[in-house]
Design goal:
The complex is a heterodimer. Chain A is mostly helical. Chain A contains 22 helices and 3 strands. The longest helix of chain A has 27 residues. Chain B is an alpha/beta fold. A 6-stranded parallel β-sheet of chain B has the order 15-14-13-16-17-18, with helices on both faces. In chain B, strands 6-7-12-9-10 form a 5-stranded antiparallel β-sheet. Classes of the chains: A mainly alpha, B alpha/beta.
Chain lengths: 483, 422
């Protein structure tokens, strides 16, 4: 383990993060609020620590970033940002305990959208902006952002990139990793501008349009209203958000190719087909269930079921209705969708559609192998063979993911949460969705969870966002030793 | 002859009339010692594709007239297919015995009417061979009694000897007859050797080495028509490679010569099986087993020709020898520019040539009956202006005609003189 390069890189990420904290200072000043000092102090402290750290470990010849260094930098960088990002909440007095402040920051950065704030509408604009801005930064990834901005991180950048970008087989859009990072951020900004303009057109205030756009394209879920998007009873706004959540849950590689005029990959992509198939099937089933048991009427049934399905599968967590009062089948489908998650290379969390795809094909193959033990078959994605190592890594990922889920659920139950709430809370934080079921359902928040539970759920969010391996491999005893 | 194995060279020098040079064929120094700069033909047929290609490139640069390389790797094969002018990096002609064999086998599998055939003159002319069965309508008839208007009976293979048919030659059961004629016509004659045309539903390939790969590639389009394709291969890694390359192929890991494997995977339910393993012995055994298990069509590839005379009683539906296919390609070049195509008989030293009659060709303008065609040769058909002509005694060859000639080796020089061949 090259400690010097880890310290240096994490420090540089922290310094960038400190500089970004100046954005809410500007928001605070624009709205004439008094908490700009909290953000300015936090920014100074964070940037100063980052710069000092970067000076202590300057980029030198001995800056090799291997696989392990990449994972350590990413996991520690995220942890550091979650800690420093909590400062403004504490200094501005909107949250009192470190557990609450770190939970809120981690929830923002990991694009979870689970909140401990009981009354969001009572918060200052700067605080609300900061929450949504955290989503936006964490959605595409603070490490990817740092690679795009900073010169020192290019060597070994691909290790960092792999540790942060979701999916089993990250695509390189350009031969150089820095160019790839810039392209991804370019698409991200394009989506952001597009949605903001549309929401503004459909009657949202500029502030609400920007914050909700941040929450959508990052598949985050923090809202500026207590009732989330239910507060805007506008079909146009709901449809826009649904559409952009769906886009944010798609692979950004496909967006990139489509923007360059190449629609071929999009029309032939297996993952996209599965993703769209799952979404449509879930909408159809929930709509039928709701038509039989609720009184929304056909149009509203479709609108709400589509919004909730897309919101949950993309792991956004916006709501237009309290789905916790829906009939059991609909809730069960939503719970399953919490595990599926978005596409690989999207801003969505959870297991990811492509892994579900590979898992299904792998299982079918093993079933067939029981009948024809001599047949040699290859799992294919988009016509290309998936190497055996990748499919077994996918299997291991799913098992690890479910193990973390079960252990965390046991721990939450030990802290006194009822079964439905414990399942909902862990599934919703590990999958970076946000609202769960029961005690932590859409109509409630996470403030009732005990402090220990908040730390555990914050850890779950990080594990989920960095796709299990990056965080858990640091717990392997040999990780920190020299090879 | 250049080779690195000194022992084998001295053996070759004893047995053949060639000059043997010990050394690396891809070394310019060694090539020059062999006088490659003035060579009219350089043939590189080592086991290594790269060495063959390099040797040809060097020879070409040193001034050799024509170069031939054996290239077996599918990667280069694809490169060569892309090179539009037919030459690739100094290699004039490439020979890929396994690919050629696979193409031949695929033809045998797809066409259930004949046991073996070949096309000449851009597909206008067909060479067919049939084994005459006892109940065939042509058994025990004289050649002159056959009502042949569109084809010529060019040879009869009886007990391993080639007979040039005359009017009074009897056709006996067990004969293998060779017919040259217009494409598709001979089957109209009712010359079918009593075999039913079966619709292909399942095709199995036994062995996944080079021929198996090329064969899978050749028959894969059949899958689009609902044909099930199976391939049996022992080696797990190789199985995986094949499964990756051919999505529509069912790859089965198992030894094709293992009876249990064949039964478990229902190999006997195939409509056609190609046995293309690395060992001739196990290929023959597997082919025989499958034929006994009731597979309608079994084609076997053999590396060596020694076993060919003994395959008759095994009732196989076809045998392919990659080396013969390759040799035909090399011979065609040796015979010179006027030979447009050439097919070799596996069973005997005989060949079928497609020759272009030149302006001053000695055979031109003379009625065939007065031409003095050598005893071991037969003029099969002529192709003139795109039309296939079955010659009579008064037919004359004109400049520009494509002449399809069958000849045994002993008549080669006389025939060559007739058409000014090398």
């Amino acid at each position: 383990m090259n400690v010097r390069s880890v310290v240096g890189s994490v420090s540089r990420i922290v310094a960038v993060f400190g500089a970004l904290m100046l954005a809410p200072v500007a928001v605070s000043l624009v709205f004439g609020e008094s908490d700009w000092r909290a953000f300015l102090i936090s920014s100074m402290v964070t940037a100063a620590i980052g710069v000092v750290g970067a000076l202590l470990a300057p980029p030198g010849t001995d800056q090799r970033i291997g696989n392990r260094e990449g994972m350590a930098i990413t996991a520690l960088g995220w942890t550091a940002c979650a800690l420093f990002g909590a400062l403004p909440f504490l200094l501005a007095g909107s949250l009192r305990t470190p557990a609450d402040a770190v939970f809120e920051t981690m929830s923002g950065l990991t694009t979870t959208g689970a909140t401990v704030l009981a009354d969001v509408e009572a918060q200052s604009h700067a605080i609300l902006f900061w929450r949504s801005f955290l989503h936006w930064l964490g959605g595409m990834g603070i490490v990817v952002l740092s690679i795009a901005l900073l010169p020192g991180l290019q060597v070994g950048g691909s290790q960092l990139f792999r540790a942060e970008v979701p999916g089993p087989l990250p695509d390189r859009l350009e031969p150089r990793i820095r160019e790839t990072a810039r392209r991804l951020w370019g698409i991200y900004i394009l989506l952001t501008v597009g949605q903001t303009v549309l929401l503004r057109l459909f009657g949202m205030s500029l502030f609400d349009a920007v914050t909700h756009t941040f929450g959508t394209v990052a598949t985050g879920g923090f809202s500026t209203a207590n009732k989330s998007l239910e507060a805007w009873n506008s079909p146009a706004i709901h449809l826009t958000v649904t559409a952009f959540m769906f886009l944010a849950g798609m692979s950004f590689t496909l967006h990139y190719r489509a923007l360059r005029g190449d629609l071929q990959p999009m029309s032939k992509d297996d993952e996209l087909k599965t993703y769209a198939g799952i979404v449509l099937a879930a909408i159809a089933l929930i709509s039928l269930d709701l038509l039989a048991h609720s009184s929304y009427g056909l149009w509203n049934t479709l609108r709400h079921s589509a919004f909730q399905v897309v919101s949950v599968i993309t792991t956004t967590g916006f709501t237009t209705v309290n789905y916790d009062v829906w009939p059991p089948l609909s809730r069960a489908i939503l719970l399953l969708l919490m595990f599926v998650g978005g596409s690989a290379g999207s801003t969505g969390g959870a297991i990811k559609v492509v892994r579900v795809n590979v898992l299904a094909k792998h299982s079918i193959r093993e079933l067939k192998r029981a009948v024809y033990p001599r047949r040699v078959t290859v799992i294919r994605l988009n016509g290309k063979a998936v190497p055996e190592e990748v499919s077994s890594a996918v299997l291991a990922f799913v098992i690890l993911y479910l193990s973390v889920f079960l252990l965390a659920m046991l721990a939450m139950s030990a802290m006194g949460l009822d079964f439905v709430s414990a399942v909902g809370a862990v599934a919703a934080t590990l999958g970076n969705i946000g609202p769960g079921f029961g005690l932590v359902g859409p109509a409630c928040n996470y403030s009732a969870v005990p402090a220990m539970g908040k730390w555990l759920l914050s850890f779950c969010m990080l594990v989920g966002r960095l796709e299990v391996y990056t965080v858990l491999s640091m717990l392997v005893p040999g990780f920190w030793r020299r090879p | 002859m250049i080779d690195r194995a000194a022992g084998r060279l001295s053996e070759i020098e004893r047995n053949l009339d060639v000059m043997a040079i010990h050394g690396n064929g891809a070394s310019l120094r060694v090539l020059e010692r062999a006088g490659v700069s003035g060579a009219s033909l350089v043939i590189a047929v080592t086991d290594l594709d790269e060495v063959n290609m390099l040797a040809c490139m060097l020879a070409k640069q040193a001034g050799a007239h024509t170069t031939i390389a054996r290239v077996r790797d599918p990667d280069y094969d694809t490169d060569l297919a892309l090179a539009s002018d037919g030459t690739y990096a100094g290699v004039d002609v490439t020979i890929n015995p396994d690919h050629q064999a696979a193409v031949d086998i695929a033809r045998l599998i797809k066409n259930p009417d004949s046991s073996e055939f070949d096309y000449l003159a851009g597909g206008k002319v067909q060479i067919l061979s049939y084994t005459v069965e006892p109940d065939s309508p042509v058994a025990h008839t004289r050649v002159r009694e056959l009502d042949i208007a569109t084809a010529t009976l060019v040879a009869i293979l009886r007990n391993g000897d080639v007979l040039i048919p005359r009017g009074d030659t009897d056709i006996l059961p067990g004969d293998k007859v060779f017919v040259v004629g217009r494409r598709g016509v001979p089957s109209v004659f009712g010359w079918r050797a009593g075999r039913e045309a079966t619709r292909l539903r399942t095709v199995s390939i036994m062995g996944g080495s080079s021929i198996g790969y090329y064969l899978a590639r050749a028959v894969e389009p059949l899958a689009a028509h609902g044909v099930q394709l199976k391939l049996f291969e022992k080696d797990g890694e190789r199985c995986r490679t094949l499964a990756e390359a051919f999505p529509r192929l069912t790859v089965i890991q198992g030894d094709p010569s293992n009876l249990e494997v064949l039964q478990d995977e229902n190999a006997e339910g195939s409509d056609a099986v190609a046995v293309v393993g690395d060992s001739d012995q196990s290929n023959l055994l597997t082919g025989y087993l499958l034929k006994r298990m009731g597979v309608p069509r079994v084609v076997v590839s053999l590396k060596r020709t020694e076993y060919l005379p003994f395959t008759g009683p095994m009732d196989l539906d076809g045998t392919v020898v990659p080396r013969v296919s390759a040799a035909a390609a090399i011979l065609k070049i040796i015979r010179g520019d006027r030979v447009l195509s050439l097919a070799l008989l596996k069973e005997a030293r005989a060949e079928v040539l497609e020759v272009l009659a030149s302006e001053d060709c000695p055979a031109c303008g003379i009625p065939l009956r007065d031409l003095g065609v050598p005893t071991g040769a037969v003029i099969g058909v002529l192709v003139r202006g795109g039309h296939v002509i079955v010659p009579r005694g008064d037919t004359r060859i004109l400049p520009g005609d494509h002449v399809i000639v069958f000849m045994v080796e002993s008549s080669r020089e006389d025939t060559a003189r007739l058409f000014e061949l090398r």
